[in-house]
Amino acid sequence: MTSVGIPKLRVFKTAASRLLMLACLAMLPLLATLQPGHSAEFQPLEIITKSGVQVFSVEYAKTDDERAKGLMFRKELAEGAGMLFDFSPEQPVAMWMKNTYVSLDMIFIAGDGRIIRIAENTVPESLATIASGGPAKGVLEVVAGTAKKLGIRPGDRVAHPLFGGK
What is the pTM (predicted TM-score) of this model? Predict the structure, then answer.
């Protein structure tokens, strides 16, 4: 009887393990939305500067919820990464750093892909308003110091489908 009980127990453990695994897999989409780093999509973005083309991998925030959350609650942001906020149609835009723990450069971009303003080294968790300084269709947030380090300036062009490019 003991030898018969062991295989049944193994089958039960295997079935239970499979059931647990399936339950966890079914919950992944829900868990992903609860994680601070979740966003809908990652996309390539290029900035054409006088010194060359700078390539970024950006999360694309296009819904109200994605834009409202932005990069809040993140403890770090990798070099070459960022978040692109879609504010279509082009309009004056204002941002803040509430619940954002990482200093950022905010790059405000007109509908034609031209950079109109860069707010460098924003203050983490600040409630101060950071305005676009004119109509913007998008805002790119990257690690503080990136604009200066890569020579990104107002007037440079951004290539991304949001601005009619790539």
Answer: 0.75
